[in-house]
Specification:
Layout lengths: L3 E11 L2 H9 L5 E6 L2 E5 L9 E5 L4 E9 L2 H13 L9 E2 L7 E6 L5 E6 L18 E9 L2 H12 L2 E8 L3 E8 L7 E5 L4 E8 L3 H14 L3 E7 L6 E6 L5 E5 L13 E4 L3 H4 L10 H5 L16
Parallel strand pairs: 1-4, 5-8, 9-12, 10-17, 13-16
Antiparallel strand pairs: 1-5, 2-3, 3-4, 6-7, 7-8, 9-13, 10-11, 11-12, 14-15, 15-16
Bound molecules: fe (ii) ion.
């Protein structure tokens, strides 16, 4: 039984908070809703989540944590008990969450030492409908991590959080390179990429629709922000993609129209991404090659098995 309901936010530690804030609250289109000493909380205007991105000033660049929601405090307790019983390394017991919106939650390390937070009862943020032509993120769509042991990482999330495999990307010479995992009917809220080390592969933000996604993509292109890959439309998930590098080299994505699946009937597919029509159904994106792929390896995460201070 799956007790996780959805992806909430991704929290990054950054050596240059000011420049990252300027990027995300500026051209990327998030809204800074709260600050604390060395912390910036950024919301997506159409999302009930208090924030979808937290930035923390730190010497070491790392992913602080990835946060998921549960339906009730009782579900939070059940999950915490199950994880502890199954030998998962816990960081905190269920209790009051101290970040904006409060709530009830706990933290643990996944198999490679990423910090994961599960919470319920977080107060919803007053949000608003994004208007036609408004090219700012509606919500956080998904988070993808690089893993040096992707099979083990996928198995961890399947076993302990009951995430389900939606699709895989394979290559005739390299084997399976990407696993798309869901925690609800969205094709993926989380994915695992085979990489040289654990790190953030990319964080993806959903735009209102194709027009808004293209307007946002154009704004980033015109600004001179380094584009990694896109614009295009993936086969797996059927979502559009434009990947850029933030000022510290984290890959971030604008997407839209990610597929919803019928969880009762869905069978995971195997997509050979050496076929250009699998990588990009439209044929508008630059070719994916090893040089493009390497841009999203990111720096080795400095926060493995190290709980963030907040
Ligand atoms: Fe993505």
């Amino acid at each position: 039984m799956r007790l996780v309901t959805h992806l909430r936010h991704v929290d990054l530690a950054v050596p240059d908070l000011a420049v990252e804030r300027d990027f995300y609250a500026g051209i990327w289109g998030l809204t800074e809703v709260a600050t604390d000493s060395g912390l910036s909380f950024l919301a997506a205007e159409d999302s009930p989540e208090q924030y979808v991105l937290r930035l923390r000033a730190a010497t070491d660049k790392r992913v602080d944590l990835i946060a998921f929601g549960a339906a009730t405090p009782a579900d939070v307790d059940t999950l915490a008990l199950q994880l502890a019983r199954d030998g998962v390394r816990m960081i905190s017991e269920p209790g009051a969450v101290a970040t904006p919106g409060g709530g009830y939650g706990f933290r643990f390390f996944d198999n490679e030492g990423r910090t994961v937070e599960i919470s319920a009862d977080v107060a919803p943020r007053t949000h608003r409908r994004i208007e036609e032509g408004e090219s700012v993120p509606v919500r956080l769509s998904h988070v993808v991590v690089n893993s040096a042991d992707p099979e083990g990482t996928v198995a961890f999330y399947e076993r302990h959080l009951a995430f389900a495999l939606s699709d895989r990307l394979t290559h005739p010479g390299m084997g399976t390179m990407m696993w798309f995992l869901r925690c609800n009917d969205r094709h993926h809220s989380f994915a695992v990429a085979r990489g040289p080390h654990p790190s953030l592969h990319h964080a993806s933000f959903e735009l209102r629709g194709i027009d808004e996604y293209m307007r946002g993509t154009g704004r980033l292109l015109r600004s001179g922000t380094e584009k990694v890959w896109g614009p295009g439309r993936h086969k797996a998930g059927n979502n559009t993609f434009s990947y850029f590098l933030d000022p510290l080299g984290n890959t971030v994505e604008y997407t839209t129209e990610l597929e919803r699946v019928d969880e009762n009937t869905w069978h995971p597919g195997l997509h050979d991404f050496s076929d250009p029509a699998v990588s990009d159904q439209w044929g508008t994106a630059n070719a994916m090659d090893e040089f493009v792929a390497k841009k999203s390896f990111n720096d080795p995460d400095k926060g493995l098995f190290l709980a963030p201070p907040v």
